[in-house]
Design brief:
Chains: A mainly alpha, B mainly alpha, C alpha/beta
Oligomer: heterotrimer
Mean pLDDT of chain B: 81
Largest interface: A-B, 111 and 115 residues
Structural class of chain A: mainly alpha
Shape of chain B: globular
Low-confidence stretches of chain A: 1-24
Order of helices and strands of chain A: HEEHHHHHHHHHHH
Mean pLDDT of chain A: 84
Helix content of chain A: 55-70%
Helix content of chain B: over 70%
Low-confidence stretches of chain B: none
Order of helices and strands of chain B: HHHHHHHHHHHHH
Number of helices of chain A: 12
Strand order of the largest sheet of chain A: 1-2
Chain lengths: 316, 279, 425
Amino acid sequence: MATVSTAPTTSRPTHPSHRPRTPRRGLPVLGALPFLAPALALYGIFLLFPIVSAIYLSFVRWNGFPTVPQIWAGLANYQDIFTNDTVFHTALRNSVIWVVLSLVVPTVLALLLALALNNRLLGRNLLRSAFYIPAVLASIAVATMWTWIYNPNSGLVNSTLTSLGLSSWIQDWLGDPQIALYSVFVAFVWQTTGFSMVLFLAGLQTVPADLVEAAKLDGASAWQTFRNVTLPALRPTFTVVLVLTVISSLKVFDLIVGMTNGGPAQSSQVLALWSYSQSFINHNFGGGNALAVVLLVITLALVLPYLMWTLKEDER
Amino acid sequence: MNAVRRANYPLIGLWIALVVCALIWLAPFAFMVLTSLKSTADIGRSSVWALPEVWRWDNYTAAAERGELWTVAKNSAYIALIKVPLGLMISAAAAFAIARLRFKRQRILLIVITLGAMVPVQVAIAPMFTTLSSMGLLNSTNGIILPYLAFGIPSQVFFLYGFFRSLPRELDEAARIDGSGNWRLFVRVILPLAKPALAALFILDFVATWNEYGMALVLLQDQDARTVPLALQAFQSQFASNYGQLNAFIIMSILPVLIVYLMFQRFFTQGALAGAIKG
Amino acid sequence: MNIPSKAAALAASALLLTACSGRVQDNTSATSGGQVKLSWWMVTQNADTANAAFKSIIGDFEKQNPNIKVDLQYRAVDAHKDALRTTAGSSSGPDIYYNWAGPGLGGELVKSGVSLDLSKYYEQYKWADRFNPSTLAAYKQYGGYHGVPWTQRTEVVYYHKDQFAKAGISAPPTTYQEWATAAQKLKDAGLTPITMGGKDNWHVMRLLDTFIETNCGAELGDKLNTRATSWAGQPCVDKSFEQLKQWSGNYFNKGFAGLPVAEAGAMFHSGKSAMQLEGDWFTQQNIDAGDDQNNVGVFPMPTGTDRLYGFSEGMYISKSSKHPDEAAKFLDFFTSAAVEGKYLGVFSSVPVNKETKGENPLAPINTQIAELTGKAKGFFLNNDQNFSTDVTTEYWRIQNGVTSGSIAPKEAGALLQKFIDTHKD
């Protein structure tokens, strides 16, 4: 579920001089159990068990029918992914492209918008809402909207280009394998920039105003102020935004299903969707789950280091 | 704050640029609304920005009927209004325990829980289906609440953990001296302080639950149990040639979420701030 | 008081609540006091007339058989397929289910043990003599009898007579050469020769399948489509992909690749194109969209093999059904000449029961199609029903790769064969 998740604070004792000398008492383990139980139970059944099940299934050959036995196949599915799967390399490449683009485009855009909207402007709240509102929509609604916008006959893009006299710029937005992925990405930027913008706005509130003043008095230019005062203060925000972006961009699914279904000719396929397609459409559950495991490993590799680092910081 | 004495030209220029950008950003909405009021013939013939020849308000009523808007909205509301508060309670309780727990495995537990945020729904869908099926909870608005709760836990616990960690220990001490047990401490002391964070999470989770599509698609196949995003999908094949009604339905389906967001968005900006983006 | 489990109690009661009051979808055939409830799973019907027809058929049956109730459920195509898979072998599956008869779709369910062998009912109700032999073939192909035919779909080329006239085409083409020439003439006259909805891969596939049949002939075509022969190194296969590339580059509507098929249809209905490859279900849509029926005609794909492009849809009984006898009784009623005749034209225009006499006049186009079907020597099947689903996915990838230029036509056959070879189960 895409709910917000931000970094934990670096725990600084508020009154260091008043730190009591008696050993800290926390909840004894037994007392904590009832608080943890519901969360752990739900998590265990609906998240942990499926992950374990997915890992198991990645080692069998199975078409998904409960009436058909699951046959152990060892590493065969993984071998198939790297040798016989005609779509895997495209899906992997697209996933990487998608992650990299997500880290750059909506992030920079969000930062610029946040900086701009941090000023006291007329109708500031309205403007902020305008940019954030697409994030409130269901992905499938966004997909439907943008498919219609890209419609070759009566869609917004082609109609506008034609009336501006730029009909030579018209492309087969969702039908050209070279650009289909990027057309979908535009919709993704529209949908997610607002969210990062809000996080940056929150982060900008923590930039020490007195430092900014001091810099100005020292004659620093806007850019120097930004680089030496604002950016460092925004570092925790950046890490949060980047981690959330990586996670959500690797999971992207609804938008692509709704707009191109991975096509044309599997050119807009990504790992999450291809894993699903192998299982649910091609009835190759072993292959689909092996892809899911690969995806999980990639996500872990990207996010785990950050998690460990954050929590270590927290221990200080 | 010093009032600006002279007209600040760069700022005005920035404002104009922002307004233009915002208008372009909102163009898709305007386009949808306009299209939703046109007849099919009108859409094919006239220019995209032309006003409708005949204002087809009946597109909305027809779409609401065809897509069973009231049924699906009722289901979505039912699920969201149960799941969101319940989920927040469960996550807050767990985060509270981890934030106040004192043993080595605390960090590992947190990491394990947070890793759950990386699992794409599609990976978990098949085993989830089997589990719910064996419990007899398929095609049930009640049944789907369980996996929804589970998927909300990782990020909420992570977020609230950070928040709770920032609350000073002295509060705990004081409460215990007053004779409070864990539960009282949690409910009377900690939770009220967490209001901004909880409010922010409430909005975000409500929106996410209302919009959830992947799990609902597989777990709610019965026509009566459908949620709003599912109804949208059924429209796509039926109405591919009736874009007026399709657009009308989309507009209607996003209206509730828009309203909830606009009503509560001040909590969100406050909460995101309180949500531990602290230097 | 230290309340140890207030939170746990809360959670437990929540779980209890959901477990007890969850609305459970019960698909088991209930038996209570001699009453049998049959569950029947169908795909969503677009036409209101079809929905009404199903209701009244069930109503009539229940009147004649007061101890049997039929519960009909609709799902979208993908959801229907998935529901059948996930409930295979369990009690939450249906008694009767709809499926496409091709080996890749209905056949997968047979191979996975979902379908009940109906040989004893074929004997009991004499179904073997009831249906057209060419249609019945698809239900005998697994040994024994699986499923009962419901429809025979025939796919032809719909065209606009005025556009043909404008382009100087005097008669519908009967050979591939004439067809290609006609397309060129239409293009030269400034018209869109043929509309395709490329987003729905199976639409473009229809043309490719037709070329395969034309170039390879019936026998080799069948061998290829059942993967009994290799696709690699076949000149007729290369030629077919070559022709596909040529047609998609020259004669398809602009921007076909991202267009859904319903929109291609809308273009045809409003006169924006000359031809469209469709099945008999298209006629009613065409009428509803207001296209002048005097201006619309059909001709069979000019394959030169006397076979029509088409497929059959059937009703199957689940192996795990607890009431197969009652289910068979219903299917006997459902496929009787009286019932089929009463609703001929609502679901399809071509009867599968040999004795059916239609009670209502068919739309002129559908009469034409029915005549064509009567004269045909057999059918060749849509390949997405021939192939297993993973081969179908690859077939579409290659087909789209050819039309978009990323795969050379002469490599296509070898690529497909490579996939088939490495994915034999």
